[in-house]
Amino acid sequence: MDVSEIAVDLRAEQEALDSIVAPLADTDWDLMTPSPRWRIRDQIAHLAFFDETATLAIDDPDAFQIHVGELVPLLAEGDGAVDGATIGTMENLSSADLLSRWRTARTTLARASGGLTNENRIAWYGPAMGATSFLTARLMETWAHGQDIVDALGRPRRATDRLRHIANLGLRTRGWSYLNRGQTPPPFEVRLELFGPSGDTWRLGPDEAAESVIGSAEEFCLVVTQRRHIDDTGVIASPGARDWLEIAQAFAGPPTLGPEKGTRP
Predict the structure, then answer these.
(1) I need a labelling partner for 133 at 20 to 30 A (CA). Which of 58, 124, 171, 181 fits?
(2) Helix axis angle, 61-71 relative to 40-59, nearest 10°?
(3) Of 119, 153, 187, which marks where a domain is finished?
(4) CA–CA gap between residue 193 and residue 248 (Å, rounded)
(5) How many domains does the chain have?
(6) Does residue 78 surpass a pLDDT of 90?
(7) Per residue in 197-234, pLDDT tens?
(8) pLDDT tens across 225-240, in order?
(9) Cβ neighbours of residue 5 closer than 8 Å, sequence gap 6 or more
């Protein structure tokens, strides 16, 4: 897929989440989400911060590397230190100002990404990524943190075929999920048979792969973004594929595990 198509879907995903949070009362912005310590306002601050640094990574790679050099040492100090340097920078903003900050960050990122081609590679907090994967990661982050928000609000959310980007990213980061834990990725491939929101079946990965994952595209995306435990979904996985889905991590950063079974059904 062309990077310009992903950029369009990224903006659509951002606007969909905006339509959920914009009407919220100020008190709702302080509702706790399933992410430990994080309120709804913290989820939006996280997206704003990393949309801003995504723009920096595109526009000024040298300055971005300086930023990474300042942020990475904080990982050893714990989550509180990282939160303070990222979402904590927006702690004193009102909900209206925080929403405005995120909207500005999105607009600036859209401008910066408008000059990208499929051949561009962009440095990030994990391995450098091709431009299509880079923007797909921003779409995935928007959708995943949006899931935390709708879970906090107790509201359903309509799934869209934009999930195909996240499903592809989930499969492409299979090896990363192992390497990020100091493990060697298994030598076999995995094929996906996912049922998309529009009724289509998405077949991803080699058709001849012996290991397989079958199920709802939305539920697969919830698993690889660590928003649901596989046993709280209808996803069916062969043994080798299940081992992957129990540690799947479609995002950069230190290795983390998703919710335990039964905690976010």
Answers:
(1) 181
(2) 140
(3) 153
(4) 17
(5) 2
(6) no
(7) 999 999 999 999 999 999 999 999 999 999 999 999 99
(8) 999 999 999 999 999 9
(9) none
